[in-house]
Amino acid sequence: MSIFDRIILTFYTCSMAVAAILTIIVSLNLVPLNEFVAFASRVPGRWEYTVGGAVLLLMSIRLLVAGWSRGGSSDLTIETDHEGLIHVSRGAMEDYIESFTNDVFGVFGARAKVKMTNQKINVHINASIEPGINIPDTTDEVKRTVRKNILNVIGIEVGDVELYFKHIKAKE
C-alpha cells in the first residue's frame, strides 16, 4: 500500500470513528435526539458539509479500488530451461541487495525495491553516502555489485539499477 493510500486510510478511519462515536452517543441518548435533529436540519445548503461528504466519498472509492487492485506480487518467478519455475521472495531479494549495498565503502542506510519485468530484475535503491566519497565511482561500484551478485545468486540478469543518494552525511 502506498503512502498516499495510508494517509487516506488514516483520515477515513478517523472519520468513521467519529461517525461511530456519534451513533453511540445518539443511541445511548447522551445527547437528546431533538438536539441532534436540530443540528441535522442545519446541514442542507451548507457547502462545508457537501465538501466533507464528497471527500469521504472519494476516499471510500480510492480505498475500494486500492483494496481490489491486484498490486505487485510478493515473489519473483523465474523461468529456467531445465529447472522449471523458481520462486524467490521479493523481500528476500530486497534484503539481500540492501545488505551488500551497505557493504560498499561510504554507502549506508540502503533501502531496495525490486521489480520483475521480462525475465529481468529492475532495482531501485535509496541510500545515504558519506561526505568526501566520489559519487559517480561509488554508483558504478554499487551497480556492478548488484548485477554480479544477482546473476550469481538467481542466475538472471539485472536490467536497470537506479541509485538515489538521499543524504550526504556521516554515518551515525
Tally of strands: 5
The number of distinct helices, counting runs of at least 4 residues, comes to 5
Strand content: 25-35%
Mean pLDDT: 82
- Indicate the CATH topology of the largest domain: Alpha-Beta Plaits
CATH architecture classification name of the largest domain: 2-Layer Sandwich
Query: Which strand order does the major sheet show?
Result: 3-4-5
| Total of domains | 2
Quickly give the structural class. Answer: alpha+beta
List SSEs in N-to-C order.
HHHEEHEEHE
Task: Please identify the oligomeric state.
Answer: single chain
Query: Tell me about the biggest sheet?
Result: 3 strands, mixed
What Rg, in angstroms, do the CA atoms define? 25 Å
Q: Just give the CATH class of the largest domain.
A: Alpha Beta
Spans of at least 5 consecutive residues whose pLDDT stays below 50 are none
Distance between the termini: 30 Å
How are the SSEs ordered, and which strands pair?
Elements: H1 3-27, H2 33-41, H3 47-68, E1 75-80, E2 84-89, H4 90-102, E3 107-117, E4 120-129, H5 135-154, E5 158-168
Parallel strand pairs: 4-5
Antiparallel strand pairs: 1-2, 3-4
Describe the structure.
The protein is an alpha+beta fold. The chain folds into 2 domains: 3-68, no CATH class; 75-168, Cation efflux protein, cytoplasmic domain (Alpha-Beta Plaits). The radius of gyration is 25 Å and the shape is elongated. It has helices at residues 3-27, 33-41, 47-68, 90-102, 135-154, and strands spanning 75-80, 84-89, 107-117, 120-129, 158-168. The model has no long low-confidence stretch (mean pLDDT 82). The strands form 2 sheets. Strands 3-4-5 form a 3-stranded mixed β-sheet, covered by helices on one side.
